[in-house]
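Dear colleague,

Thank you for sharing your sequence with our group. We've completed the structure prediction you requested, and as agreed, I am returning the results in plain text so they can be pasted directly into your records. Please verify that the sequence below matches your submission; if there's any discrepancy, let me know and we will rerun it promptly.
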Amino acid sequence: MTKQSHTSRRRLIGIALTLMLAVSAVIPVATSASSGLGCTPGYWKNHTGLGPQANAWVGASWSDLFEATDAPPGIYFNDAFGNMTLLEVLSQGGGGLSALGRHTVAAYLNARAFNYDLSASAVVRRFNWATDGDPSTGLSLEAQKNEFAALNEQYCPLN
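Please find the predicted structure tokens below.
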């Protein structure tokens, strides 16, 4: 390659980089990719950490009380389900708060078990914001359930 072709090539690379920077300043680019990992409430309900899936429930037990479950640094779920365990919340039927509870427990367990799109602390905070009755702090019950459901219905690496 001649010196002139090297100079031309460098100039073209410089122009391309300048154009890329200009375009990225105008078009928003996602800064973090989804992990693409998530297991459904049904998976967690049927894999309670007993038998061959003994290590599936990382940092939690099916018998833990929902409101006593915390995420670092000491953030606890709102007491929305009385004295129900995580497994009892997962096993509820119906919509509304029950559906949010199922998907919240699944999201929490996903966050504890592998590289999920939210941290365990973020799951607890989002549930609390949705159930605190103040629409300025978070999503509605249904919208929060839908967000968790979308994340929980990705590829389950534990299957």
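Summary note from our side: Residues 41-152 form one domain.

Kind regards,
the structure core
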